Task: structure prediction
Amino acid sequence: MTEQSPRSRRLTARFAPLHRIHIRQVKEMYAIFNAHYEHTDLETFMADLSRKDGAILLREPDNGRIVGFSSIVTMPMGDNGDKGSGVFSGDTIVMPEYWGSRALHFAFMRYIIRQKLRRPATPLFWLLISKGYKTYLLMANNFDQYYPHPDDRHPELEPLVQSYCERLFPGYYDPENRVLDFGESAQHLRQGVAGITEDLAREVPKIGFFRDRNPTWDRGTELPCIARLTYPSIMRALSKWWLQSTAKSLGKMGGRLKALGAR
Result:
């Protein structure tokens, strides 16, 4: 029997409240983060995590090893919460050998569905800041109502972006360039991780848009984003991911059957 490759293993992903994340797990999370970002330290990482409600932990099923995570905090939108609720995605990273897994995506959807069901009539928004294009694409490829948009749609969402940036990161929002600038020593992706080539920017217009809106992404400036989460948009994203996962599984099964037939 051949050993499964990392990409073929079925991962598990569950939201863990902050008080249930042990220091050993925090160190596992930081090790992944530190492997992909420059200018990091454990103290800053832990301080940032302490301001979150918890994190979705992506694990290998056989040994429980953490191979990715996404920290989360839910907050009211508007001065008195009159605009709705926002689910803010903080640090999000997955080990490269597991890129393509949608376990983290489905776990995030379960989380936002629970938030939506608690207050079904209240508008719900996904808030995220993006150092790299992969995070931006996760929003732009799966939801219709989002900002910033390559076609300049939904400008009414821009004030909400500025509002949450000023609340979560006071003093760091640059209203002229509409990015979060944490300075020259900001955390940023290590060289070679999710780089943007001219060919990639040209072939995938949304990646080109991300680069143009956040041209200093490689030194750690963040593009703040927002998406309106409606029931139809949530169901469309879930259906899309399910179909993609099913097609991928069928493709692997076909490959195995073909290999067996060739013996």
